[in-house]
Amino acid sequence: MNIIETIRARKSIRGFKPDPFEASVIREILQIAVAPCFNAT
Q1: Residues ≥6 apart with Cβ < 8 Å to 32
Q2: Alpha helices by DSSP H, 1-41
Q3: CA distances from 18 to 15, 21, 41 (A)
Q4: pTM given for the model
Q5: d(C-alpha 40, C-alpha 25), whole Å
Q6: Fewest CB within a 10 Å sphere: which of 17, 18, 24, 27?
């Protein structure tokens, strides 16, 4: 499962892993978050 599928299939999780994220993953998440939504009315 890639990061996009993971975000779309997200669930509330109360515990977090101690593993660090790579900077490229955080950049991709931020790019998706600020991308224009063409489905908005």
Answers
A1: 4, 7
A2: 3-8, 23-34
A3: 10, 9, 40
A4: 0.42
A5: 26
A6: 18
Buried/exposed code over 5-39 (b: 16+ C-beta within 10 A; e: otherwise)? eeeeeeeeeeeeeeeeeeeeeeeeeeeeeeeeeee
Residue 12 has what DSSP assignment?
Answer: -
> Token pair for residue 36?
């224009």
Q: Bigger pLDDT: 11 or 29?
A: 29
User: Between the CA of residue 34 and those of 7, 19, 28, 39, what are the distances in Å?
Assistant: 14, 25, 10, 14
Longest alpha-carbon distance in the chain: 40
